[in-house]
Amino acid sequence: MVNNDSIFEIRGLKTQFFTSKGIVPAVDGVDITVRKGEAVGLVGESGCGKSMTAMSVMQLLKKPGRVVDGTIKLNGEDLLKMNKREINDIRGNRISMIFQEPMTALNPVYTIGKQAMEALMIHQKISKEDAKAKVIDMFAKVGIPEPEKRFSVYPHQLSGGLRQRVMIAMAMICNPELMIADEPTTALDVTIEAQILYLMSQLQKEVGTAVIMITHNLGVVAESCDYVYVMYAGKIMEEAPVKELFKNPLHPYTFGLMNSIPKMTEVKTHLYTIKGMVPNLLNLPQGCRFCPRCDKAMKICTMYQPDLYELEDGHKVRCFLYNKEVMESGK
Ligand code: SF4
Q1: Which of 237, 320, 324, 327 has most ligand 1 atoms within 8 Å of its beta carbon, as the pocket-test mutant?
Q2: Given pLDDT bands bounded at 50, 70 and 90, which one contains residue 4?
Q3: Cα 92 to middle of ligand 1, angstroms
Q4: What pLDDT is stored for residue 266 in this prediction?
Q5: pLDDT tier at 145, thresholds 50, 70, 90
Q6: What is the Å distance from ligand 1's center to 280 Cα?
Q7: Which runs of E-coded beta strand occur in the chain?
Q8: Closest-CA residue to 70 (of 8, 17, 14)
Q9: How far apart are CA 237 and CA 260, in angstroms?
Q10: 8 A C-beta contact, residue 228 and residue 248
């Protein structure tokens, strides 16, 4: 894959939690590349490490978790080498984040207008009047009705959909280079979900912001992303341009995820589910992490961890089935 126009690169990221029961490798050597204006999906079941990847980027990890290795570069500058002041300067300004449940991110005791103004005034040296005008303009842009009136309401006075629009307005108001959206539509019904995804992609195109969309829902990825990473038990298992992944899923885990999506054209008596459970990160299998759930597992899969093999045009897969030597040797 050509990385020349990448604005954001994660390389070899390892995030671990040092618990009394042992070390939990929540993110285990993850590489992610995002180009200017591109929307990248990070998909997987809950607990696979996708939110921990986002928290590592934003440096919002809580103890006993910490990044133990890797680099996180925004336009060539390594975030992991920055001090607290430099990170605070980037967070909410050059990189912003949208959370699944806006009530956890919004302060219930301040009006939404005041909160949005604050983000703007911290990072851009503008007057109160200009900040207020910009916030009202942004509220209108994200489809908040009567934005001037709504400026003075508190988060609890809004519906879930409107609260999420406020979060998007706050995330986009400083024209960030990168926005990380962690399950931004999971708590919303499907109609509102479609509206929010449409709004995000419109703003993204208008401003040229790159997006990392974290989701368990492949449907959301299909709707809104250009490129996708499939994550499982702390590792990237497959990555490809979205169209290629949907046309030609290669990893048995991706296959399982795809099969669990109900299709309009098929009548099924029950939905497919991937057998077994996500492994306990304190007690991972010795070989391939997906092995205990894989229908195609071979002997070698129980002994060694596969690398991420690069196939055609940016399609990469972590599975021995795509290693010629292994398949020819019949292991
Ligand atoms: Fe399945 Fe083996 Fe591929 Fe792992 S490496 S996904 S166990 S076939």
Answers
A1: 320
A2: low
A3: 40
A4: 64
A5: very high
A6: 18
A7: 6-19, 22-35, 39-43, 65-74, 77-78, 95-98, 178-182, 210-215, 227-232, 235-241, 309-310, 316-317
A8: 14
A9: 17
A10: no
Measured in angstroms, how far is the CA atom of residue 45 from the centroid of ligand 1? 17
CB 230 near ligand 1, within 6 Å: no
Is the shortest distance between the CB of 322 and ligand 1 below 6 Å? Answer: no
Closest CA to 289 of 17, 19, 51, 44: 44
Confidence of residue 331 (pLDDT cuts 50, 70, 90): low
Q: In what order do the strands lie in the sheet with 178-182?
A: 95-98, 178-182, 210-215, 39-43, 227-232, 235-241, 316-317, 309-310
Q: Which amino acid is at 15?
A: T
- Segment 86-127, tens digit of pLDDT: 999 999 999 999 988 888 889 999 999 999 999 899 888 899
What is the position in ligand 1's atom list of the atom closest to the CA of 320?
A: 5
Ligand 1, atom 5: nearest CA belongs to which residue? 319
The pTM of this model reads: 0.93
CA 302 / ligand 1 centre spacing (Å): 9
Residue 97 tokens, joined = 């984040």
- The DSSP-derived string for 263-321 is -TT---SS----SS-PPPTTS--SS-TTGGG-TT--HHHHH-----EE-STT-EE--GG
Matching residue, tokens 């009006």: 111
The span from the CA of 249 to the CA of 255, in Å, is 6
Q: How far is the CA of 52 from the centre of ligand 1 (A)?
A: 24
3-class secondary-structure state, position 25: strand
Distance 95 CA to ligand 1 centre (A): 36
301 pocket-lining for ligand 1 (C-beta < 6 Å): yes
State both tokens at 84: 């607290």
What Cα–Cα distance (Å) separates residue 293 from each residue in 57, 250, 252, 323?
A: 30, 16, 9, 20
